[in-house]
Amino acid sequence: MSTPGDPAQPDLESCRGTMSAEEDAKWLQWVTHQFETIAGEDREINLQEFKTALNVKESFFAERFFALFDSDGSGTITLQELLEALTLLIHGNPMDKLKFLFQVYDVDGSGSIDADELRTVLQSCMRESAISLPDKKLDQLTLALFESADKDNNGAITFDELRNELQRFPGVMENLTISAAHWLTPPAARPRSRRPRPLTSAYWHNHRSHLLCLAAYAGLHVLLFTLAACAHRALGASVMVAKGCGQCLNFDCSFIVVLMLRRCLTWLRATWLAQVLPLDQNIQFHQLMGWVVVGLSLVHTVAHVANFALQAQSGASPFRFWELLLTTRPGIGWVRGSASPTGVALLLLLLLMFACSSSCIRRSGRFEVFYWTHLSYLPMWILLIVHGPSFWKWLLVPGILFFLEKAIGLAVSRMAALCIVEVNLLPSKVTHLLIKRPPLFHYRPGDYLYLNVPTIARYEWHPFTISSAPEQKDTIWLHVRSQGQWTNRLYESFKTSDPVDSKRLSRSLRMRRSQRKPQSFQCQPVRSGAAVQGAMASSKDVTVELTSYRPRGTPQHGDPGPVPTGTEESAQAQRRTTSEWGLCYIDGPYGTPTRRIFASEHAVLIGAGIGITPFASILQSIMYRHQKRKHICPSCQHSWMDNVQDEDMKLHKVDFIWINRDQRSFEWFVSLLTKLELDQAEETREGRFLELHMYMTSALGKNDMKAIGLQMALDLLAKKEKKDSITGLQTRTQPGRPDWRKVFQKVAAEKKGKVQVFFCGSPALAKVLKGHCEHFGFRFFQENF
Hints:
- Residues 499-523, 548-576 are annotated as: Disordered.
- The chain crosses the membrane at residues 211-235, 288-312, 332-357, 369-387.
- Its main location: membrane.
- By secondary structure, the protein is of the alpha/beta class.
- 44% of the residues lie in helices and 12% in strands.
- Strands 1, 2, 3, 4, 5, 8 and 9 form a seven-stranded antiparallel sheet that branches. It has a six-stranded parallel sheet with strand order 15-14-13-10-16-17, with helices on both faces. Strands 6-7 form a two-stranded antiparallel ribbon.
- The radius of gyration is 32 Å and the shape is globular.
- The two termini are 53 Å apart.
């Protein structure tokens, strides 16, 4: 493991000298244990066992690490060799790590790194980070890094030149390691988890309406239970409990439907009540009330069963127990003594609905089971009216609102079938639908609708966020990710269809300043089969093929002009043969928490994967309004902004953070982001209204030996070309996950006004973000999808 100019082996004891004796003993014990779990009977590790344990995607790094770990060249690694190598990598100083890195890059052992060796290393780095770039781009990355490091232009990179190049990236050399070797690092002792303190000012700031409603809900139940129980205290404890639970059930079983009146909730969002009521948590409250209904029903049933058992046992009633429980003979109830049998039927229906509403049913491709069993609320209401003498009074107002909303929704959604103007299939299994916009369909950025495609499922309606801006008058955009049974059938139905013709789509991405009109920002739909969303963006002319379908009979539209599209990675361009696929029905629009964005001063939009969909519409609308306030002098080309903002928009700054797992996921909206960057290209970075932050979680960071070379090359080429090699945006795509503390510290330091964070993504990430928002005093809003 010698390096040019330094043949000595690393000093094992000096490398471990920073550890205490106890820590050193634990580390040795852990490494020995891990070694024994992967070593063969000969107590040595061969190359294949090493690859399996290291869990690397590219064999190049496994073979290079193995060759360097195998100091005696025997073809196997002993425990002592492993300890020496890991001591260097885990506990070594920056210079030792740099020497090891140089040996990895110096494939032929010549003491220097030539361009071909560097290209091989960068290609392996790309595979480790799941990054796919054309060979031409790989050559450009290689030359960028090689020319930057080879200061003397002798055609080779020496150890000193590599060290000097790495020193341009602060903090990298000190933290350089191999992330895949975590299995040889002892697990850190977990600190005791601190319980959340719900009474802190930050927690109260973000949850006050939620907590107040929960308190009012609990207090109302206590009041209803107490009044009903006291009114029947002469009949015994079991009857008191049953009547108390029954009175609470009267309220719950009628009010639970109010939480799902989407049109009413959308209307309430436009009123001052949106600041008081937790309208964003309507689904969570609906689920909570479902649990409460089940719990109260069971207690209500057990109390009545206990009462019937006491009556039958004491002889207070001439009827036997089973007659009291299952028949109408005792005359219990206000409709021909039907309280007992209707109660049993209600309990069975409720348990069936409850079981089929579980997430394992809804998310396992059995949505129809959830949907049809949930429709049992209609017979349940009928049974409840028969079962309880006063339930109809509780149901009167909610029931009228419910049936009015259903009637309006049915009339609007089935008034006329809409034409699907075009369907574009993206390689990442995202279906981009362009639907003809109805004349009276008015919506706000971030709203969603329910979609029904009869050829997929006649009775199924599924919610999708509208990804086009309201200013786009002709079409409505929907981006549907293939994640469940219905969405997969939608994607596959177009994918397997027979093409009528194929057309290669070429678009220029050279958006010249003379062609741009800042005062007339237009969100134009795709017309001629070229999707606005492509695989990647580029600043050069490229040929793009996308799977595109248009129903027969759909008129051809004119060319909308230069539209940013993708790169070389794509699918075929085809057209659908029948007009059936051009028909669908929509129900909506319905409001979401993102409506609050325009009332914010500093908005931070965070999307994870397809969670960007609500923000696509919002970003387009924001930039439209921003450009509307912008003016340019025709003589001197000086630009200025109106101080008067529109009534609905108080935004001073927008930070958009998009986190994706892999490179392909950026194809959804990267062209939209390219256009947004171009619209503010003339503004300084400090004065930009919209700032983008892109993260790719599958990419390894600069601190990893399997990625440092690639990340350095990407940085150098991005500075040279003024655009990112992964997405084509001016914004550099960062590897790994964001450091949320640093991100929010930067946002707080900008002091652009009160900060509100809007998130659409996984619940696990939402919890992390919510904790950081409470720490910094930011308002947090989450969109459920």
